[in-house]
Amino acid sequence: MKDFSPSDIRNICLVSHQSTGKTTVAEAMLFSAGITTRFGRVDDGTTVSDYRSDEIERKISISSALMTMEWKKNKINILDLPGRPDFIGEALCGMRVSDLAVVLLDAYSGVEVGTETVVEICDKYKLPRLFFVNRIDREHSNFEQTLSQAQESYGNSVVAAQFPVQEAEGFDSLIDLLSMKKITFLSDQSGKTKVEEIPTNLLD
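Request: output the structure for the sequence above.
Response:
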């Protein structure tokens, strides 16, 4: 990887309640950036960040894992941090060296105890955070309910930057409210997307 100036380096951490999909999201980021050529799976023990034998055996993250990728001319350091309360010390250390916390929310479970814990740490250390609603493709997912829970818990400063066109098995595209574009994930599992204008029937 090439050299980067400090202004082009970002440290982000993935935090959440336990078993919300942080390691899989990290895999998706690396795959989309072209760092890996295959999408590792926690169940198969093939993820980049859960590399310890006890993590592979138990299918959970126990220690912090650092990954690096280049994205839009920036170097992004990704910290995949454990979600179980037993390992909150690991998560705290990783959050203290991060520029941004990506707080994952399960699209079915919403705000959970572990969510509240990591947000309290963000508040204590004035760490900027964004909420990432994960597992929208799962049965019984409910994006709007999850968003409402986050707003009820953390105020109206929580606003959607993207929202899914469909959920559960039909999930394959998003509406990006920043660019006002529709983003569709290609079905070839390449990690690539197609960007197009928002259909008129979705503008309301």
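The radius of gyration is 17 Å.
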